[in-house]
Design brief:
This protein has 139 residues and is α/β, with parallel strands linked by helices. It contains five helices and seven strands. The protein has a five-stranded parallel sheet. A two-stranded antiparallel sheet has the order 3-7. Strand 5, helix 5 and strand 6 form a beta-alpha-beta unit. The protein starts with a helix and ends with a strand. This is Rhodanese domain-containing protein.
């Protein structure tokens, strides 16, 4: 197995991601944006599904590493009863940081890792969570 194969991350658009979250109550959505980003433009909400969105900030400064991120997130996942086969969906503003976060977790043995392509805000070629009219919360 190559290093790339051990870091498998699938992509789903926002609507597909929300459908997966509806169909799989064990699935976890992880928002990797900074708190100020979530408070400025809002955040995805799973309140209608009766569960939280997890928050773990992807490192963007030298004092925080991907390992710090993964350790923090794994503590949250353990508290939610997740195991290494639990679907993990990652979201950021546009899909880049969430992909990196997913690759990190995949390399640590998480087997069902999904990037929400287009993120919360979207980008020119793909619509984001908010633009699709999916549930959001203002923090």
């Amino acid at each position: 197995m190559t290093v790339r194969e051990s870091m498998r991350v699938d992509d789903l658009n926002s609507k597909e991601a929300y459908q997966l979250l509806q169909d799989h109550p064990e699935a976890q959505l992880v928002d990797v944006r900074r708190p100020d980003e979530r408070s400025d433009i809002g955040a995805p909400s799973l309140e209608a599904l009766g569960r939280p969105v997890l928050h773990a900030v992807w490192p963007q400064t030298p004092d925080r590493t991907p390992e710090d991120f993964a350790n923090e997130l794994e503590s949250q996942l353990q508290a939610q009863g997740a195991d290494r086969d639990t679907p993990l969906l990652f979201i950021c503003r546009s899909g880049a940081r969430s992909r990196a976060a997913g690759e990190t977790m995949s390399s640590r043995g998480w087997t069902r890792v999904i990037n929400v392509a287009g993120g919360f805000s979207g980008k020119p070629e793909i619509t984001g969570w908010a633009d699709e009219g999916l549930p959001i919360s203002k923090i």
